[in-house]
């Protein structure tokens, strides 16, 4: 899955967050995600591995919600300059190729 962030209007430090929603058909307690962020036009690449604990040892979802559970995970904080854009690629590192129960994945950039 990829996300393209348009060029920045202003320079600054930005915290990237990955947001995800799952439902009860998700078959695992945790999920490993690899997030690659490429800052353009210089092509600086930052890679993060997120170990996302979604279901506790007691079988209860750790996220917010009732039938869909919302999770937020911090990604690398980036210093971006005016005119920089981002290409973000998210993939999982699980044995199964298709993972049921993931309904939404999104990226948020927050100015620090």
Describe this entry's structure for a reader:
The chain is an all-beta fold and 112 residues long. The protein has one domain: Jelly Rolls. Helices cover 0% and strands 61% of the residues. Strand 3 (30-40) and strand 4 (44-53) form a beta hairpin. The model has no long low-confidence stretch (mean pLDDT 95).
Could you give a quick summary of the protein structure above?
It comes from Hoylesella timonensis CRIS 5C-B1. This protein is an all-beta fold and 112 residues long. It has strands at residues 2-5, 12-23, 30-40, 44-53, 68-80, 85-92, 102-111.
Strands of the widest sheet, in order across it, are 1-6-3-4
What is the helix fraction of residues, given as a range? under 10%
In percent, how much strand structure appears in the residues? over 45%
- Please tell me the CATH architecture by its name: Sandwich
Derived from helix and strand composition plus strand pairing, the structural class reads mainly beta
Order of helices and strands: EEEEEEE
CATH class bucket: Mainly Beta
Total tally of structural domains: 1
CATH fold annotation: Jelly Rolls
Number of strands: 7
Low-confidence stretches: none
Computed over alpha carbons, the radius of gyration is 15 Å
Amino- and carboxy-terminal Cα gap: 26 Å
Shape: elongated
The count of helical stretches stands at 0
Mean pLDDT: 95
User: Sheet bearing the most strands, described?
Assistant: 4 strands, antiparallel
